[in-house]
């Protein structure tokens, strides 16, 4: 449904049966909870049968209840406040075995990401990055950690990588003002979507740059400006943003790009190893330290 689902349900309410109106009212006022209820649970909550809930889903244009539930979950991604997300988390997690529940949910997200990400877009994104003159990367709020990770490794591979500082809107545009057709703009955003990231994507696209969006859905606001959309599942119901699947996708992208620049990377890391060793960037292993002390004695 292109129109807002809640608006559609509200407009159709007068033509519903008594039982369907109960379902409609609950979904409109408690969509955050309804999105994670089974048809049976929703029916018992409002006092109707499971079959009435299934017929309701068909009445508003869905093939069945699972499709309605999926639409509700898509709806809440960018609507829930942090307080609502905490309430949903409490309902889903409870207080027992949180470690297993969270890790299993993350495993499921990686599995779904593998199933849903376009291999064609993934390959195209890697080729676009390798052939770019300049690489711009942006990620705001929790997505900034993903942007920094990507920038860290791309700076080892490419001579011109720019991580966009998003402290203010004006400074952001100052950093991308010279972006052009030979450049690539990598935008990372997950619900709740950053308005600055959306604006920067639009600017990059209007200036002829290739845009790669790393996000959770084809309906994401940054997807509409992208030449390649790389989708990764991110659980926004929780008050903590789960970025396991997005990070895994970015990791795969770094590896794919690295394989295309294999020879240059080998030379780069050979030089870096010398620098790291000379300036003692990394702590030496205990056996090496012991050998050094013995030599000194």
Structure in words:
It is a single chain. By secondary structure, this protein is α/β, with parallel strands linked by helices. The protein has 3 domains: 5-76, Arc Repressor Mutant, subunit A; 111-260, Glucose-6-phosphate isomerase like protein, domain 1 (Rossmann fold, 3-Layer(aba) Sandwich), CATH 3.40.50; 262-297, no CATH class. 60% of the residues lie in helices and 8% in strands. The protein is built from 15 helices and 5 strands. It has helices at residues 5-12, 18-29, 31-34, 39-46, 50-59, 65-76, 82-93, 98-116, 119-131, 143-157, 169-176, 195-206, 244-260, 262-278, 286-296, and strands at 135-139, 161-163, 184-188, 210-215, 228-231. The chain has a 5-stranded parallel β-sheet with strand order 2-1-3-4-5, with helices on both faces. Helix 8 packs across helix 13 (244-260) and helix 9 (119-131) packs across helix 13 (244-260). The model has no long low-confidence stretch (mean pLDDT 86).
């Amino acid at each position: 449904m292109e129109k807002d689902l809640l608006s559609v349900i509200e407009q159709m309410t007068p033509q519903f049966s008594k039982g369907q109106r109960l379902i409609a009212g609950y979904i409109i006022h408690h969509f955050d909870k309804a999105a994670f209820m089974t048809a049976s649970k929703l029916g018992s909550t409002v006092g109707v049968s499971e079959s009435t809930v299934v017929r309701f889903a068909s009445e508003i244009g869905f093939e069945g209840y699972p499709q309605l539930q999926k639409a509700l979950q898509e709806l809440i991604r960018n609507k829930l406040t942090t307080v609502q997300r905490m309430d949903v988390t409490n309902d889903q997690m409870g207080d027992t075995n949180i470690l297993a529940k969270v890790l299993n949910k993350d495993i499921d997200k990686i599995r779904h990401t593998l199933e849903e990400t376009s291999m064609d877009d993934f390959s195209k994104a890697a080729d676009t990055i390798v052939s770019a003159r300049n690489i711009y990367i942006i990620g705001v709020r929790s997505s900034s950690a993903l942007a920094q990770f990507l920038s860290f490794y791309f700076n080892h591979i490419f001579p011109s990588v720019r991580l966009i500082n998003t402290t203010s809107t004006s400074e952001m545009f100052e950093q991308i003002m010279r972006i052009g057709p030979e450049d690539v703009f990598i935008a990372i955003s997950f619900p709740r979507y950053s308005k600055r990231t959306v604006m920067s994507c639009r600017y990059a696209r209007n200036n002829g740059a290739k845009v790669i969006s790393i996000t959770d859905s084809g309906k994401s606001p940054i997807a509409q400006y992208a030449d390649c959309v790389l989708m990764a599942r991110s659980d926004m119901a929780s008050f903590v943003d789960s970025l396991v699947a997005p990070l895994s996708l970015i990791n795969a992208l770094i590896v794919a790009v690295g394989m295309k620049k294999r020879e240059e990377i080998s030379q780069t890391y050979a030089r870096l190893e010398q620098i790291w060793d000379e300036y003692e960037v990394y702590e030496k292993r205990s056996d090496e330290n012991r050998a050094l002390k013995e030599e000194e004695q």
